[in-house]
TrEMBL record, chain B:
It is found in: Cell membrane; Membrane. This is Probable membrane transporter protein. The chain crosses the membrane at residues 12-45, 82-104, 110-131, 171-194, 239-260, 272-293. Its main location: membrane. It holds the Pfam family TauE. It is a multi-pass membrane protein.
Length: 266, 307
Protein backbone atom coordinates (compact mmCIF):
# COMPACT_ATOMS: atom_id res chain seq x y z
CA UNK A 1 0.00 0.00 0.00
CA UNK A 2 2.76 2.45 0.86
CA UNK A 3 4.34 1.91 -2.54
CA UNK A 4 1.05 2.74 -4.15
CA UNK A 5 0.50 5.86 -2.07
CA UNK A 6 3.92 7.27 -2.78
CA UNK A 7 3.58 6.48 -6.45
CA UNK A 8 0.27 8.30 -6.54
CA UNK A 9 1.75 11.35 -4.86
CA UNK A 10 4.67 11.50 -7.20
CA UNK A 11 2.32 11.35 -10.14
CA UNK A 12 -0.23 13.80 -8.81
CA UNK A 13 1.78 16.80 -7.69
CA UNK A 14 3.32 17.87 -10.99
CA UNK A 15 0.22 17.00 -13.00
CA UNK A 16 -1.95 19.41 -11.04
CA UNK A 17 0.57 22.17 -11.62
CA UNK A 18 0.71 21.36 -15.27
CA UNK A 19 -3.07 21.41 -15.58
CA UNK A 20 -3.22 24.89 -14.11
CA UNK A 21 -1.21 26.18 -17.07
CA UNK A 22 -2.96 24.15 -19.73
CA UNK A 23 -6.62 24.67 -18.81
CA UNK A 24 -6.93 28.43 -19.57
CA UNK A 25 -5.08 28.04 -22.86
CA UNK A 26 -7.42 25.25 -23.90
CA UNK A 27 -10.50 27.31 -23.14
CA UNK A 28 -9.39 30.10 -25.47
CA UNK A 29 -9.02 27.88 -28.53
CA UNK A 30 -12.08 26.44 -30.23
CA UNK A 31 -10.22 23.49 -31.67
CA UNK A 32 -11.60 19.93 -31.76
CA UNK A 33 -11.21 17.75 -28.69
CA UNK A 34 -7.88 16.38 -27.66
CA UNK A 35 -6.56 14.26 -24.82
CA UNK A 36 -3.43 14.51 -22.73
CA UNK A 37 -1.95 12.28 -20.08
CA UNK A 38 0.87 13.07 -17.74
CA UNK A 39 3.25 10.87 -15.84
CA UNK A 40 5.28 12.81 -13.35
CA UNK A 41 7.62 9.93 -12.76
CA UNK A 42 9.55 8.51 -15.66
CA UNK A 43 10.44 5.33 -13.86
CA UNK A 44 9.09 2.84 -11.36
CA UNK A 45 11.58 0.82 -9.37
CA UNK A 46 11.14 -2.82 -8.47
CA UNK A 47 12.62 -3.66 -5.09
CA UNK A 48 12.95 -6.87 -3.05
CA UNK A 49 9.39 -6.61 -1.73
CA UNK A 50 7.72 -5.83 -5.05
CA UNK A 51 4.40 -7.62 -5.41
CA UNK A 52 2.71 -5.62 -8.11
CA UNK A 53 1.33 -2.10 -7.91
CA UNK A 54 -1.63 -0.03 -8.96
CA UNK A 55 -0.38 2.75 -11.14
CA UNK A 56 -2.43 5.93 -11.26
CA UNK A 57 -2.31 8.03 -14.41
CA UNK A 58 -3.91 11.46 -14.62
CA UNK A 59 -5.07 13.12 -17.78
CA UNK A 60 -7.30 15.78 -19.22
CA UNK A 61 -9.57 16.41 -22.18
CA UNK A 62 -8.82 19.46 -24.25
CA UNK A 63 -11.73 21.54 -25.54
CA UNK A 64 -14.47 19.18 -24.40
CA UNK A 65 -17.96 19.99 -25.64
CA UNK A 66 -19.83 20.80 -22.40
CA UNK A 67 -23.05 19.35 -23.81
CA UNK A 68 -21.47 15.96 -24.63
CA UNK A 69 -19.60 15.93 -21.33
CA UNK A 70 -22.80 16.54 -19.37
CA UNK A 71 -24.48 13.60 -21.06
CA UNK A 72 -21.46 11.45 -20.23
CA UNK A 73 -20.79 10.65 -23.87
CA UNK A 74 -17.02 10.99 -23.57
CA UNK A 75 -15.21 7.75 -22.88
CA UNK A 76 -11.57 7.16 -22.14
CA UNK A 77 -9.57 3.95 -22.36
CA UNK A 78 -6.09 3.92 -20.83
CA UNK A 79 -3.58 1.21 -21.64
CA UNK A 80 -0.25 0.39 -20.05
CA UNK A 81 1.69 -1.75 -22.46
CA UNK A 82 4.89 -3.60 -21.56
CA UNK A 83 7.92 -3.94 -23.83
CA UNK A 84 7.44 -6.04 -26.96
CA UNK A 85 9.11 -9.44 -27.11
CA UNK A 86 9.25 -12.42 -29.43
CA UNK A 87 7.23 -15.20 -27.90
CA UNK A 88 7.03 -18.89 -28.69
CA UNK A 89 3.75 -20.64 -27.89
CA UNK A 90 4.16 -24.39 -27.54
CA UNK A 91 1.50 -27.01 -27.42
CA UNK A 92 1.87 -30.30 -25.56
CA UNK A 93 0.56 -33.45 -27.17
CA UNK A 94 0.63 -37.03 -26.11
CA UNK A 95 3.33 -39.22 -27.63
CA UNK A 96 3.51 -42.78 -26.36
CA UNK A 97 1.76 -41.78 -23.16
CA UNK A 98 4.08 -38.86 -22.43
CA UNK A 99 3.07 -35.23 -22.80
CA UNK A 100 5.63 -33.55 -25.05
CA UNK A 101 5.91 -30.04 -26.52
CA UNK A 102 5.22 -30.86 -30.13
CA UNK A 103 3.90 -27.95 -32.15
CA UNK A 104 4.81 -24.33 -31.72
CA UNK A 105 4.11 -20.96 -33.23
CA UNK A 106 6.29 -17.89 -32.86
CA UNK A 107 4.91 -14.38 -32.53
CA UNK A 108 6.71 -11.07 -32.91
CA UNK A 109 6.37 -7.83 -30.96
CA UNK A 110 4.04 -9.30 -28.36
CA UNK A 111 3.55 -6.84 -25.49
CA UNK A 112 4.90 -8.64 -22.44
CA UNK A 113 2.20 -7.11 -20.30
CA UNK A 114 -0.98 -5.24 -21.19
CA UNK A 115 -3.19 -3.56 -18.65
CA UNK A 116 -6.35 -1.69 -19.67
CA UNK A 117 -8.65 0.63 -17.74
CA UNK A 118 -11.92 1.96 -19.17
CA UNK A 119 -14.68 4.35 -18.16
CA UNK A 120 -17.41 1.82 -18.96
CA UNK A 121 -17.77 -1.79 -20.13
CA UNK A 122 -16.14 -2.35 -23.50
CA UNK A 123 -19.36 -3.04 -25.39
CA UNK A 124 -20.85 0.28 -24.22
CA UNK A 125 -18.01 2.42 -25.54
CA UNK A 126 -17.69 1.57 -29.21
CA UNK A 127 -18.14 -1.15 -31.82
CA UNK A 128 -16.03 -4.35 -31.88
CA UNK A 129 -14.76 -3.29 -35.31
CA UNK A 130 -13.09 -0.16 -33.98
CA UNK A 131 -11.44 -2.11 -31.14
CA UNK A 132 -9.92 -4.39 -33.72
CA UNK A 133 -8.85 -1.45 -35.90
CA UNK A 134 -7.22 0.24 -32.94
CA UNK A 135 -5.81 -3.09 -31.72
CA UNK A 136 -7.25 -2.14 -28.36
CA UNK A 137 -8.06 -4.44 -25.42
CA UNK A 138 -6.49 -7.70 -24.27
CA UNK A 139 -8.82 -9.64 -26.58
CA UNK A 140 -8.16 -7.44 -29.59
CA UNK A 141 -4.47 -6.57 -29.70
CA UNK A 142 -2.98 -7.71 -32.93
CA UNK A 143 -0.50 -10.55 -32.43
CA UNK A 144 1.76 -10.89 -35.40
CA UNK A 145 2.92 -14.43 -36.23
CA UNK A 146 6.60 -14.67 -37.21
CA UNK A 147 5.67 -16.91 -40.11
CA UNK A 148 2.83 -15.20 -41.95
CA UNK A 149 2.43 -18.08 -44.41
CA UNK A 150 1.32 -20.55 -41.72
CA UNK A 151 -2.03 -22.28 -41.60
CA UNK A 152 -4.59 -19.63 -40.51
CA UNK A 153 -6.48 -22.14 -38.35
CA UNK A 154 -3.31 -23.03 -36.43
CA UNK A 155 -2.36 -19.39 -36.08
CA UNK A 156 -5.81 -18.56 -34.71
CA UNK A 157 -5.54 -21.42 -32.22
CA UNK A 158 -2.12 -20.34 -30.95
CA UNK A 159 -3.13 -16.66 -30.87
CA UNK A 160 -6.05 -17.57 -28.64
CA UNK A 161 -3.80 -19.69 -26.42
CA UNK A 162 -1.25 -16.86 -26.15
CA UNK A 163 -3.97 -14.44 -24.95
CA UNK A 164 -5.34 -16.98 -22.50
CA UNK A 165 -1.94 -17.74 -20.98
CA UNK A 166 -1.18 -14.03 -20.61
CA UNK A 167 -4.53 -13.37 -18.93
CA UNK A 168 -4.07 -16.39 -16.64
CA UNK A 169 -0.62 -15.14 -15.63
CA UNK A 170 -2.15 -11.76 -14.73
CA UNK A 171 -0.03 -10.03 -17.35
CA UNK A 172 -2.99 -9.06 -19.52
CA UNK A 173 -5.74 -7.47 -17.48
CA UNK A 174 -8.79 -5.28 -17.89
CA UNK A 175 -10.14 -2.89 -15.30
CA UNK A 176 -13.64 -1.79 -16.32
CA UNK A 177 -14.51 1.42 -14.49
CA UNK A 178 -10.81 2.04 -13.81
CA UNK A 179 -11.02 5.43 -15.49
CA UNK A 180 -12.99 8.09 -13.56
CA UNK A 181 -13.77 11.64 -14.56
CA UNK A 182 -12.90 13.94 -11.66
CA UNK A 183 -14.33 17.00 -13.39
CA UNK A 184 -15.52 17.82 -16.88
CA UNK A 185 -12.05 17.50 -18.31
CA UNK A 186 -9.87 15.88 -15.68
CA UNK A 187 -9.74 12.09 -15.37
CA UNK A 188 -7.87 9.52 -13.37
CA UNK A 189 -7.01 5.99 -14.54
CA UNK A 190 -5.85 3.07 -12.43
CA UNK A 191 -3.92 0.37 -14.25
CA UNK A 192 -2.46 -2.74 -12.69
CA UNK A 193 1.24 -3.50 -12.78
CA UNK A 194 1.63 -7.29 -12.39
CA UNK A 195 4.10 -8.67 -9.81
CA UNK A 196 6.24 -10.05 -12.61
CA UNK A 197 5.93 -6.98 -14.82
CA UNK A 198 9.00 -6.96 -17.01
CA UNK A 199 11.69 -4.34 -16.71
CA UNK A 200 12.02 -2.01 -19.66
CA UNK A 201 10.10 0.78 -21.34
CA UNK A 202 6.35 0.62 -20.83
CA UNK A 203 4.03 2.79 -22.85
CA UNK A 204 0.96 4.44 -21.40
CA UNK A 205 -1.66 5.32 -24.00
CA UNK A 206 -5.02 7.04 -23.63
CA UNK A 207 -7.79 6.78 -26.22
CA UNK A 208 -10.64 9.29 -26.33
CA UNK A 209 -14.07 8.33 -27.68
CA UNK A 210 -16.94 10.75 -28.29
CA UNK A 211 -20.41 9.29 -28.82
CA UNK A 212 -18.82 5.93 -29.54
CA UNK A 213 -16.40 7.30 -32.14
CA UNK A 214 -12.65 7.30 -31.67
CA UNK A 215 -11.31 10.85 -31.53
CA UNK A 216 -7.74 11.00 -30.42
CA UNK A 217 -4.88 9.22 -28.74
CA UNK A 218 -2.07 10.39 -26.51
CA UNK A 219 0.87 8.51 -25.04
CA UNK A 220 3.63 8.72 -22.47
CA UNK A 221 6.50 6.49 -21.53
CA UNK A 222 7.37 4.84 -18.27
CA UNK A 223 10.58 3.06 -17.43
CA UNK A 224 10.29 0.08 -15.11
CA UNK A 225 13.55 -1.04 -13.64
CA UNK A 226 14.97 -3.06 -10.81
CA UNK A 227 16.27 -0.97 -7.99
CA UNK A 228 19.28 -1.15 -5.77
CA UNK A 229 20.49 -4.64 -4.97
CA UNK A 230 18.27 -6.49 -7.46
CA UNK A 231 19.40 -4.18 -10.23
CA UNK A 232 23.05 -4.62 -9.31
CA UNK A 233 22.74 -8.42 -9.24
CA UNK A 234 20.84 -8.55 -12.52
CA UNK A 235 23.34 -6.29 -14.28
CA UNK A 236 26.32 -8.15 -12.92
CA UNK A 237 24.85 -11.50 -13.97
CA UNK A 238 24.17 -10.34 -17.50
CA UNK A 239 27.17 -8.12 -18.18
CA UNK A 240 29.87 -10.00 -16.28
CA UNK A 241 28.55 -13.55 -16.30
CA UNK A 242 31.89 -15.21 -15.61
CA UNK A 243 32.70 -12.95 -12.66
CA UNK A 244 29.17 -13.39 -11.31
CA UNK A 245 29.54 -17.16 -11.61
CA UNK A 246 32.88 -17.04 -9.78
CA UNK A 247 31.26 -14.93 -7.07
CA UNK A 248 28.42 -17.46 -6.69
CA UNK A 249 30.95 -20.29 -6.39
CA UNK A 250 33.04 -18.39 -3.84
CA UNK A 251 29.96 -17.56 -1.77
CA UNK A 252 28.83 -21.19 -1.82
CA UNK A 253 32.26 -22.34 -0.67
CA UNK A 254 32.24 -19.67 2.02
CA UNK A 255 28.88 -20.84 3.34
CA UNK A 256 30.04 -24.47 3.28
CA UNK A 257 33.25 -23.57 5.12
CA UNK A 258 31.39 -21.46 7.70
CA UNK A 259 28.94 -24.30 8.18
CA UNK A 260 31.71 -26.78 8.89
CA UNK A 261 33.23 -24.38 11.47
CA UNK A 262 30.04 -23.26 13.19
CA UNK A 263 28.68 -26.77 13.56
CA UNK A 264 31.99 -28.57 14.07
CA UNK A 265 31.63 -31.93 15.75
CA UNK A 266 34.13 -32.30 18.55
CA UNK B 1 7.84 -12.61 3.88
CA UNK B 2 8.27 -12.24 0.15
CA UNK B 3 11.52 -11.65 -1.65
CA UNK B 4 12.09 -10.80 -5.29
CA UNK B 5 14.61 -13.09 -6.97
CA UNK B 6 16.67 -10.91 -9.30
CA UNK B 7 17.44 -13.59 -11.89
CA UNK B 8 14.35 -15.79 -11.70
CA UNK B 9 12.38 -12.50 -11.79
CA UNK B 10 9.62 -13.70 -9.50
CA UNK B 11 8.58 -13.06 -5.92
CA UNK B 12 8.90 -16.01 -3.57
CA UNK B 13 8.44 -16.68 0.13
CA UNK B 14 11.72 -16.55 2.07
CA UNK B 15 10.56 -19.03 4.70
CA UNK B 16 9.46 -21.61 2.15
CA UNK B 17 12.93 -21.53 0.62
CA UNK B 18 14.71 -21.66 3.98
CA UNK B 19 12.53 -24.58 5.03
CA UNK B 20 13.16 -26.31 1.72
CA UNK B 21 16.91 -25.86 2.18
CA UNK B 22 16.71 -27.10 5.77
CA UNK B 23 14.66 -30.18 4.85
CA UNK B 24 17.04 -31.14 2.05
CA UNK B 25 20.03 -30.32 4.27
CA UNK B 26 18.62 -32.60 6.96
CA UNK B 27 18.23 -35.44 4.47
CA UNK B 28 21.67 -34.87 2.97
CA UNK B 29 23.22 -34.94 6.43
CA UNK B 30 21.22 -38.03 7.29
CA UNK B 31 22.15 -39.97 4.16
CA UNK B 32 25.48 -38.38 3.26
CA UNK B 33 24.38 -37.18 -0.18
CA UNK B 34 24.66 -33.72 -1.75
CA UNK B 35 20.93 -33.24 -2.04
CA UNK B 36 20.99 -31.74 -5.53
CA UNK B 37 18.65 -34.44 -6.79
CA UNK B 38 16.06 -33.27 -4.23
CA UNK B 39 16.57 -29.51 -4.45
CA UNK B 40 16.13 -29.18 -8.20
CA UNK B 41 12.78 -31.04 -8.42
CA UNK B 42 11.54 -29.21 -5.29
CA UNK B 43 12.34 -25.86 -6.89
CA UNK B 44 10.55 -26.94 -10.06
CA UNK B 45 7.48 -27.96 -8.01
CA UNK B 46 7.66 -24.48 -6.44
CA UNK B 47 7.34 -22.93 -9.93
CA UNK B 48 10.93 -21.80 -10.28
CA UNK B 49 11.72 -22.06 -14.02
CA UNK B 50 13.55 -25.40 -14.57
CA UNK B 51 16.53 -23.72 -16.24
CA UNK B 52 17.10 -21.60 -13.13
CA UNK B 53 16.39 -24.47 -10.75
CA UNK B 54 19.08 -26.58 -12.43
CA UNK B 55 21.80 -23.93 -12.54
CA UNK B 56 21.08 -22.72 -9.01
CA UNK B 57 20.90 -26.31 -7.77
CA UNK B 58 24.44 -26.85 -9.04
CA UNK B 59 25.53 -23.75 -7.14
CA UNK B 60 23.87 -24.95 -3.94
CA UNK B 61 25.59 -28.34 -4.20
CA UNK B 62 29.00 -26.63 -3.92
CA UNK B 63 28.20 -25.42 -0.43
CA UNK B 64 27.25 -28.78 1.02
CA UNK B 65 30.03 -30.74 -0.74
CA UNK B 66 32.64 -28.20 0.34
CA UNK B 67 32.02 -28.62 4.04
CA UNK B 68 31.90 -32.41 3.60
CA UNK B 69 35.14 -32.57 1.62
CA UNK B 70 36.95 -30.43 4.22
CA UNK B 71 36.28 -32.92 6.98
CA UNK B 72 37.36 -35.84 4.75
CA UNK B 73 40.57 -34.00 3.90
CA UNK B 74 41.42 -33.66 7.58
CA UNK B 75 40.88 -37.39 8.06
CA UNK B 76 43.03 -38.24 5.03
CA UNK B 77 40.22 -40.04 3.22
CA UNK B 78 40.49 -38.01 0.04
CA UNK B 79 42.42 -39.31 -3.01
CA UNK B 80 43.52 -36.10 -4.74
CA UNK B 81 45.05 -37.85 -7.75
CA UNK B 82 41.90 -39.86 -8.42
CA UNK B 83 39.83 -36.72 -7.79
CA UNK B 84 41.78 -34.72 -10.37
CA UNK B 85 41.49 -37.45 -13.01
CA UNK B 86 37.71 -37.64 -12.43
CA UNK B 87 37.66 -33.85 -12.66
CA UNK B 88 39.44 -33.84 -16.04
CA UNK B 89 36.68 -36.04 -17.42
CA UNK B 90 34.08 -34.01 -15.56
CA UNK B 91 35.01 -30.76 -17.28
CA UNK B 92 34.60 -32.29 -20.73
CA UNK B 93 31.24 -33.80 -19.74
CA UNK B 94 30.05 -30.61 -18.14
CA UNK B 95 30.89 -28.48 -21.18
CA UNK B 96 28.99 -30.90 -23.40
CA UNK B 97 26.11 -30.85 -20.93
CA UNK B 98 25.76 -27.07 -20.93
CA UNK B 99 25.79 -27.10 -24.72
CA UNK B 100 23.05 -29.75 -24.85
CA UNK B 101 21.17 -27.76 -22.19
CA UNK B 102 21.11 -24.60 -24.36
CA UNK B 103 20.18 -26.60 -27.43
CA UNK B 104 17.27 -28.35 -25.73
CA UNK B 105 16.06 -25.09 -24.29
CA UNK B 106 15.91 -23.48 -27.71
CA UNK B 107 13.96 -26.51 -28.96
CA UNK B 108 11.51 -26.24 -26.05
CA UNK B 109 12.32 -29.78 -24.88
CA UNK B 110 14.51 -28.96 -21.87
CA UNK B 111 11.84 -29.53 -19.21
CA UNK B 112 10.90 -32.86 -20.74
CA UNK B 113 14.51 -34.01 -20.97
CA UNK B 114 15.24 -33.02 -17.37
CA UNK B 115 12.13 -34.84 -16.15
CA UNK B 116 12.90 -38.01 -18.11
CA UNK B 117 16.53 -38.06 -16.93
CA UNK B 118 15.36 -37.67 -13.36
CA UNK B 119 12.73 -40.38 -13.64
CA UNK B 120 15.09 -42.87 -15.30
CA UNK B 121 18.13 -42.23 -13.10
CA UNK B 122 16.35 -41.83 -9.78
CA UNK B 123 14.08 -44.73 -10.58
CA UNK B 124 16.91 -47.13 -11.39
CA UNK B 125 19.32 -46.00 -8.65
CA UNK B 126 16.51 -45.97 -6.08
CA UNK B 127 15.28 -49.38 -7.18
CA UNK B 128 18.75 -50.94 -7.02
CA UNK B 129 19.43 -49.43 -3.61
CA UNK B 130 16.12 -50.62 -2.24
CA UNK B 131 16.71 -54.19 -3.43
CA UNK B 132 20.28 -54.21 -2.09
CA UNK B 133 19.38 -52.80 1.33
CA UNK B 134 16.35 -55.08 1.76
CA UNK B 135 18.54 -58.08 0.94
CA UNK B 136 21.12 -56.95 3.51
CA UNK B 137 18.39 -56.43 6.10
CA UNK B 138 16.98 -59.88 5.45
CA UNK B 139 20.41 -61.53 5.54
CA UNK B 140 21.42 -59.83 8.78
CA UNK B 141 18.12 -60.87 10.32
CA UNK B 142 18.78 -64.48 9.23
CA UNK B 143 22.12 -64.30 11.03
CA UNK B 144 24.37 -65.38 8.13
CA UNK B 145 26.84 -62.56 7.33
CA UNK B 146 27.16 -61.63 3.68
CA UNK B 147 30.54 -62.67 2.25
CA UNK B 148 32.78 -59.62 1.73
CA UNK B 149 34.08 -58.88 -1.73
CA UNK B 150 37.79 -59.58 -2.05
CA UNK B 151 39.76 -56.48 -2.98
CA UNK B 152 41.95 -58.55 -5.30
CA UNK B 153 39.01 -59.46 -7.52
CA UNK B 154 39.33 -58.12 -11.07
CA UNK B 155 36.80 -57.46 -13.82
CA UNK B 156 37.07 -56.38 -17.46
CA UNK B 157 37.67 -52.75 -16.45
CA UNK B 158 40.96 -53.75 -14.88
CA UNK B 159 42.24 -55.15 -18.19
CA UNK B 160 42.06 -51.78 -20.03
CA UNK B 161 45.34 -50.09 -21.06
CA UNK B 162 46.89 -46.78 -19.82
CA UNK B 163 47.16 -47.87 -16.22
CA UNK B 164 47.89 -45.42 -13.45
CA UNK B 165 48.66 -45.83 -9.77
CA UNK B 166 46.45 -44.18 -7.12
CA UNK B 167 48.23 -44.53 -3.78
CA UNK B 168 45.55 -43.31 -1.38
CA UNK B 169 43.02 -45.66 -2.94
CA UNK B 170 45.57 -48.51 -3.21
CA UNK B 171 44.61 -48.90 -6.87
CA UNK B 172 46.42 -49.59 -10.12
CA UNK B 173 43.84 -49.06 -12.83
CA UNK B 174 43.37 -47.72 -16.36
CA UNK B 175 42.50 -43.99 -16.61
CA UNK B 176 39.88 -44.63 -19.30
CA UNK B 177 37.03 -45.68 -16.97
CA UNK B 178 38.05 -42.94 -14.51
CA UNK B 179 37.77 -40.25 -17.19
CA UNK B 180 34.52 -41.77 -18.49
CA UNK B 181 32.87 -41.80 -15.06
CA UNK B 182 33.98 -38.20 -14.54
CA UNK B 183 32.56 -37.17 -17.92
CA UNK B 184 29.18 -38.81 -17.28
CA UNK B 185 28.89 -37.16 -13.87
CA UNK B 186 29.86 -33.79 -15.37
CA UNK B 187 27.24 -34.14 -18.09
CA UNK B 188 24.51 -35.03 -15.59
CA UNK B 189 25.60 -32.27 -13.25
CA UNK B 190 25.10 -29.56 -15.85
CA UNK B 191 21.80 -30.90 -17.19
CA UNK B 192 20.20 -32.00 -13.92
CA UNK B 193 21.78 -29.59 -11.44
CA UNK B 194 22.97 -32.47 -9.28
CA UNK B 195 26.38 -33.22 -7.85
CA UNK B 196 26.08 -36.80 -9.03
CA UNK B 197 27.19 -38.41 -5.79
CA UNK B 198 24.37 -40.92 -5.97
CA UNK B 199 25.89 -42.28 -9.20
CA UNK B 200 29.56 -41.60 -8.48
CA UNK B 201 29.67 -43.49 -5.19
CA UNK B 202 28.34 -46.83 -6.53
CA UNK B 203 30.42 -46.44 -9.73
CA UNK B 204 33.65 -45.98 -7.77
CA UNK B 205 32.86 -48.84 -5.39
CA UNK B 206 31.55 -51.43 -7.81
CA UNK B 207 33.39 -50.59 -11.07
CA UNK B 208 36.77 -49.35 -9.87
CA UNK B 209 36.85 -51.11 -6.47
CA UNK B 210 37.91 -47.94 -4.65
CA UNK B 211 37.92 -48.53 -0.86
CA UNK B 212 34.62 -47.30 0.60
CA UNK B 213 36.23 -44.96 3.13
CA UNK B 214 38.00 -43.02 0.34
CA UNK B 215 34.99 -42.95 -1.99
CA UNK B 216 32.82 -40.36 -0.25
CA UNK B 217 35.62 -37.82 0.29
CA UNK B 218 36.93 -38.18 -3.25
CA UNK B 219 33.46 -37.99 -4.73
CA UNK B 220 32.69 -34.83 -2.74
CA UNK B 221 36.01 -33.30 -3.81
CA UNK B 222 35.28 -33.95 -7.47
CA UNK B 223 31.70 -32.72 -7.10
CA UNK B 224 32.84 -29.34 -5.73
CA UNK B 225 34.82 -28.68 -8.88
CA UNK B 226 32.32 -30.10 -11.34
CA UNK B 227 29.48 -28.06 -9.80
CA UNK B 228 31.69 -24.98 -9.61
CA UNK B 229 32.56 -25.36 -13.27
CA UNK B 230 28.90 -26.00 -14.15
CA UNK B 231 27.87 -22.90 -12.20
CA UNK B 232 30.45 -20.80 -14.03
CA UNK B 233 29.41 -22.02 -17.46
CA UNK B 234 25.68 -21.64 -16.76
CA UNK B 235 26.29 -18.18 -15.32
CA UNK B 236 28.24 -17.01 -18.35
CA UNK B 237 26.25 -18.66 -21.16
CA UNK B 238 22.68 -19.07 -19.92
CA UNK B 239 22.48 -16.39 -17.16
CA UNK B 240 20.45 -18.78 -15.05
CA UNK B 241 22.24 -18.79 -11.68
CA UNK B 242 20.21 -16.95 -9.06
CA UNK B 243 22.61 -16.02 -6.28
CA UNK B 244 19.86 -14.92 -3.88
CA UNK B 245 17.99 -18.20 -4.32
CA UNK B 246 21.19 -20.22 -3.86
CA UNK B 247 22.11 -18.34 -0.67
CA UNK B 248 18.68 -18.89 0.90
CA UNK B 249 18.84 -22.60 0.13
CA UNK B 250 22.38 -22.94 1.46
CA UNK B 251 21.67 -21.14 4.74
CA UNK B 252 18.77 -23.50 5.38
CA UNK B 253 20.79 -26.45 4.12
CA UNK B 254 23.88 -25.96 6.29
CA UNK B 255 21.76 -25.75 9.43
CA UNK B 256 19.56 -28.70 8.47
CA UNK B 257 22.54 -30.91 7.63
CA UNK B 258 23.87 -30.81 11.20
CA UNK B 259 20.67 -32.24 12.61
CA UNK B 260 20.58 -34.80 9.81
CA UNK B 261 24.06 -36.08 10.73
CA UNK B 262 23.00 -36.47 14.37
CA UNK B 263 19.80 -38.29 13.42
CA UNK B 264 21.79 -40.52 11.05
CA UNK B 265 24.02 -41.77 13.83
CA UNK B 266 21.00 -43.40 15.48
CA UNK B 267 20.11 -45.52 12.43
CA UNK B 268 21.87 -48.53 10.93
CA UNK B 269 23.53 -48.37 7.51
CA UNK B 270 21.12 -50.62 5.64
CA UNK B 271 18.09 -48.99 7.27
CA UNK B 272 19.41 -45.62 6.10
CA UNK B 273 19.95 -46.93 2.58
CA UNK B 274 16.45 -48.40 2.43
CA UNK B 275 14.94 -45.09 3.57
CA UNK B 276 17.03 -43.13 1.08
CA UNK B 277 15.96 -45.53 -1.67
CA UNK B 278 12.30 -44.94 -0.81
CA UNK B 279 12.87 -41.18 -0.87
CA UNK B 280 14.61 -41.33 -4.24
CA UNK B 281 11.80 -43.50 -5.65
CA UNK B 282 9.18 -41.08 -4.33
CA UNK B 283 10.79 -38.15 -6.14
CA UNK B 284 11.03 -40.23 -9.32
CA UNK B 285 7.37 -41.23 -9.04
CA UNK B 286 6.23 -37.65 -8.50
CA UNK B 287 8.10 -36.53 -11.62
CA UNK B 288 6.85 -39.51 -13.62
CA UNK B 289 3.23 -38.69 -12.79
CA UNK B 290 3.70 -35.24 -14.34
CA UNK B 291 4.94 -36.80 -17.54
CA UNK B 292 1.93 -39.05 -17.98
CA UNK B 293 -0.97 -36.99 -16.64
CA UNK B 294 -2.66 -34.56 -18.97
CA UNK B 295 -1.33 -31.11 -18.03
CA UNK B 296 -3.82 -28.45 -16.95
CA UNK B 297 -2.57 -26.25 -19.72
CA UNK B 298 -1.49 -27.70 -23.01
CA UNK B 299 0.00 -24.39 -24.07
CA UNK B 300 3.06 -22.71 -22.65
CA UNK B 301 4.84 -19.48 -23.49
CA UNK B 302 8.54 -18.86 -23.70
CA UNK B 303 10.82 -16.18 -25.00
CA UNK B 304 13.26 -17.51 -27.59
CA UNK B 305 16.70 -17.80 -26.02
CA UNK B 306 15.31 -17.57 -22.50
CA UNK B 307 13.70 -19.97 -20.02
Amino acid sequence: MSARASLLLRLLVPVVGWLACVAPAAAQLANPEGIQIGLSTEHVEITAGFSGADLTIFGSLENPDPEVARQGRYDVIVVLEGPARRIVVRRKDRVMGIWINLRSEEFENVPFSYSVATTRPFQDITEPVSYRQLSLGAGNIYLQPADMTGNPVTIAEFTKALRERKVAAGLYSENVGGVRFLSQNLFRATVRLAPDAPVGTHKARAFLFKNGVFVKESSAQLEIRKAGFEQAVFRLAHNHGLFYGALSVALAMGVGWLGSIVFRKD
Amino acid sequence: MGIYLPIAEISVNVFVLLAMGAAVGFLSGLFGVGGGFLITPLLIFYNIPPAIAVATGANQVIGSSFSGAMSHMKRGTLDFKLGFMLLAGGIVGSTAGVYVFSLLRSLGQLDLFISILYVVLLGSVGGLMLVESLNTLRVSRGGTPKPLKKSGQHNWIHRLPLKMRFRTSKLFVSVIPVLAIGAIIGFLSSIMGVGGGFIMVPALIYLLRVPTNVVVGTSLFQIIFTSAYTTLVHASTNFTVDIVLAMLLMIGGVAGAQYGVKAGQKLRGEQLRALLALLVLAVAARLAVDLFIRPNNLYSLSIPGMG
